[in-house]
Specification:
The protein is of the alpha/beta class. The protein is built from twelve helices and twelve strands. Strands 6-7-8-3-9-10-12-11 form an eight-stranded mixed sheet, with helices on both faces. Strands 2-1-4-5 form a four-stranded antiparallel sheet, covered by helices on one side.
Length: about 350
């Protein structure tokens, strides 16, 4: 897609292919009840062409992490209190808002989980897509509308020329999500963050949306951060998985390693809660007991210990376990009992032993 912007996404890509480095990110929400530490030292990276899936229950900090990267946290009450978000050698957290806007959309774009509320109901979808070109590229209304139609065709919206003047409520959920994707890729971003892009969509449409994202990624070489709680969606599209719990990264590894040999008890619990084709009929589907911790009153020690079947005394006191490097840097996990016989026996034996 043509561009007349002097700072295109490709100019930002580092020589070693590394697009994004998030280091020790901290985010807190200052409320009347107290300070909620939503993100506590999260670190990860993203390479060109790579898909990183960030997993975790609701409230684990996935979306807040994405908002901090994009610079769209509601402030107040949300504040980034520490860390580095390094995009191709530039710390985004150190940029002024005017400079941040040049990165947002043009270099790092985001698809939000609720397409209907993210689209303006008062304007046709074509006008909203074309706005990206009018503001960032300085195009005329006519040329911007042509680009909008081309994008609608690219994301496989039938009858794009006729439907470019339709309003968001006149599209199905799957079609609205495609419009959101068209807006996100309009400026050829180097990084696309997809926050629960298949929420509330049926299985067939979910597969179509994920196939579309993968196709666009293969064509452009962009890095993709997929935020989800759906382990089924992740298995076929992600290269690496990062698992979050209570605002912390608890495990990170290549996708096949996580599914074949999860190391953290929380990851084990997540995988066990997914229905399996080879499971015995009539069996009870395991679930992680309890609820995620209250961010205003975090438990001492490991945040997961109140729900962990392997928790010992060392887990219930002191500081949370650090993210420990395993397997020569290809895997990380944060657990005091990684090498305990009880945990390793369970991992090797699988859930059938329970």
């Amino acid at each position: 897609m043509a561009t007349n912007e002097s700072t295109s996404s490709n100019q930002w890509v580092s020589s070693n292919g590394r697009l994004l480095d998030v280091e020790d990110l901290h985010v807190e929400f200052r409320t009347r009840e107290g300070i909620a530490n939503a993100i506590n030292g999260v670190s990860f990276h993203l390479d060109r062409h790579e898909t990183l899936a960030i997993l975790g229950e609701s409230g684990s900090g996935k979306s807040v992490t994405a908002q901090a990267i994009m610079g769209i946290l509601d402030t107040p009450p949300g504040f980034v209190t520490g860390g580095v978000v390094n995009y191709c050698g530039v710390d985004l957290l150190g940029l002024k808002e005017k400079e941040r806007r040049k990165v947002r959309g043009a270099h790092i774009a985001m698809i939000f989980q609720d397409a209907l509320s993210s689209l303006n109901p008062c304007f046709p979808v074509g006008w909203q897509i074309a706005e990206m070109f009018r503001i960032h590229r300085g195009m005329t209304k006519a040329n911007a509308l042509k680009q909008a139609i081309a994008l609608m065709e690219k994301v496989k919206i039938p009858g794009a020329r006729e439907r470019v003047k339709a309003f968001p409520h006149q599209f199905s959920g799957g079609m609205r999500q495609r419009i959101m994707i068209a807006m996100a890729i309009a400026l050829d971003p180097a990084i696309l963050i997809a926050d629960e892009p298949t929420t509330a969509l049926d299985v067939t449409v979910q597969a179509q949306i994920m196939d579309l994202l993968k196709q666009i990624q293969e064509e452009s070489g962009m890095g993709l951060i997929l935020i989800t709680h759906d382990l089924g969606v992740v298995a076929n599209v992600a290269d690496r998985i990062a698992v979050m719990y209570a605002g912390r990264m608890v495990e990170s590894a290549m996708v096949h390693d996580v599914y074949a040999n999860p190391r953290h008890p929380y990851t084990i619990g997540l995988l066990e809660s997914v229905p399996r084709m080879d499971a015995k009929s009539g069996g009870v589907l395991p679930a992680i007991g309890g609820l995620p911790p209250n961010l205003l009153a975090m438990p001492e020690g490991c945040p997961f210990h109140p729900r962990c079947r392997f928790a010992a005394e060392e887990c219930r006191q002191g500081s949370p376990p650090p993210l420990t490097e395993l397997d020569q840097g290809s895997r990380y996990a944060a657990c005091w009992r990684l090498d305990s016989p009880e945990v390793t026996a369970h991992i090797q034996g699988g859930s059938d032993d329970d």
